[in-house]
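Pasting two entries for a bug report.
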Amino acid sequence: MGNKTRHLGGQAKPNRNNTGDEIYTLGAAENNGREVESLDSSTPTQLGARFFDTQADLSSSRQRLLRQIIDESNETFFLSSREMGRRYNVDSATIIRTVQALGYEKFADFAQDLREHFVTQITPYSAMKAAEQTNQSVADRVRQSVDQDLENLNAFKAKLDPDKIVEIAKQITQARRIVIIGIDFAASLAESLAYALVRLGFDAEAPTGSSGVVQNKIKILTPKDLLVAISFGRGLRDTIDAVLSARRRNVPTFGITDGGTTPIAKYCDAYLVASTTHTSFINSYVAPVAAINALLVACAHSQSARSLKILRESEAENTSSARWYREPTKGDS
């Protein structure tokens, strides 16, 4: 592919992944005289790209300060510029100037990217541990979780490109067969999308089981088919491997992910971004569900006559079946 993925780092160390792409990984930084663990090298972020691009123009003190802030993002992503200054024994103006040196006009924009960087790198354990450090009640955390869901949904709505979704829906309607890959929590999203597409008359499935099952499904796909991959952050290996395998077979690919720098975004032919930013240990899937719903609406209405015919037949079958629960009438045993 020849693409370069750039990462935060002390001295950038180029490595090769299994597709031959060059990836720059983060060297260990120092934190108060001790070595801190480097950030995961598999997922580039907007903040990481900015740091790499501007690193040569930053003074050593600014580089050092930024590395500390980013390496400790689990403890800094929620801080104001004033609080961050106190943490690193500098004034807030120094924090602002350092952020501006990265190309950010406002501290709030930097804080948002720092938060996304943290979310991309964290594990469920570190996420919950960070949440516990904010001294909120359980009720406060519940409200914050719902607020975050709404924020993610509003962010998806603000950047919504209906024409892009219609274009992707057109690709789905023209595909001979659709295989949807989603693992762990993303499995429910994949299964929901496949189920709804089948109801609209498409040959769609979300294979479950071992990685061998997934790879065998990919092997029988052709350029007339479509692979849909759903994964977030650094991406699960089996999902990314499925995308790479499909690409080698010239099978069209489409992804749903939570950023423009994730492996799904990097390797899929097209993708939708829906934030999964969360406040505790579990990702928020409200925005990805909205993306899937929008896609299904586009699929249904782009071939409305066909969709109505299939739905009318299903409705007739369901009405005459014992599918729905009914309250027992008098005399029923």
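Entry 2 (this is the one that rendered wrong in the viewer):
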Amino acid sequence: MLPFDAERLQRVMRAHHADVILATTRHNVRYLTGGYYLSFYARAPRFGGGQYLSVVGIPAAQPESAFYVGRQDGVLNEQDYIDAFGPFWIADRRWITRGPSMTAAAAAAAAQALRDKELGGATIAVESSFLPADALDALRSGLPDASFINATPILGELRAVKQPAELERLRQVHQVTAQAIRAVLAEGRPEHTTRQIAGMVQRRIEERGAGFLYVFTNVGPGFLRAPSSIQWGRGRPMHVDAGAEMDEYIADIARMGSIGAPPALAMDLFTACLDAQERIRGAVTAGLACRDLWRIGTEAVTAGRWGRYGRFLAHGLGMVSHEPPEVAEQSRGTLEPSMVLSIETEYLHPDAGHIKTEDTVVVTPTGSEGLGDVAREWCTVPAA
């Protein structure tokens, strides 16, 4: 049983006129194999003067005839790692050995596999934004009659509709990230700098079993979000926007807080953020055109007293931040059940700073469901 929606993949590949897809990034290899990636290189693919590269190749006409390229030599036998992983649906496995350019070697092995399958003249979709130049050269050399297109939109559309297990991972990482941010805000002190706050967020995320990705920290008034020597102080709004990952799935959450009572202006802007969130989330449902969601979100943020300071953004989220669905004025897509959206509502006011909230929802047949709706309220830390 394939670990992804084969019919959806075939449909999207046909729409892009692709005969074969070659996945080479860690996240897409894991997605297409059902969770496997060689653990030795999972965090650091660089090796010697190059890097490790594995390949999953899937022909559109026969997904079950897929092939896998990995490493097997006297030092590291990847087959052992596959056996330890468990059932591995791809039977056709090709091997390269450690060398000065494992990327080119893996691409050459993939080219040979395609020739063996009589696909040497096919239209091949490759992850062109991520594929090393020497690997692309090896593919072109080994497949002189082939044509190459970009696989990124194909794989993005495939991943856009999440499986139940993916939604559970996303729910878990969002809850963990929201809890970590709240813990840091609650233990904040006036003398803490935004750089110290950023370090605290990283520690709180990691101690909860997630991988830290990034954090933006802002103290108003002012709009600087890079961690710096600026101190939080009393009565100043703090904005923490953090990303984390668990098993390759990403959370993206923003929360607000202050030490002592927040300024009335900041609270008015925060209330406007929440009101806009509720209006937008109330509109999200399967069948809604993405351009209509963009219009609803933009109107929700820019209407009212603070509209000229408002900004709205929504984007797909899963293994990649800002993956499909695309929510923009000219978007052609439509929301489908089990798509996931990060919704950002924010106001940048010169007298208050960057006031923001960000949450993630999954599209349902009749509406939406929050993922990680934890500690959404303003965190007021008692002033000493």
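Dev reply: Rendering is fixed now. As a check, the viewer should reflect this: The longest strand covers residues 353-364.
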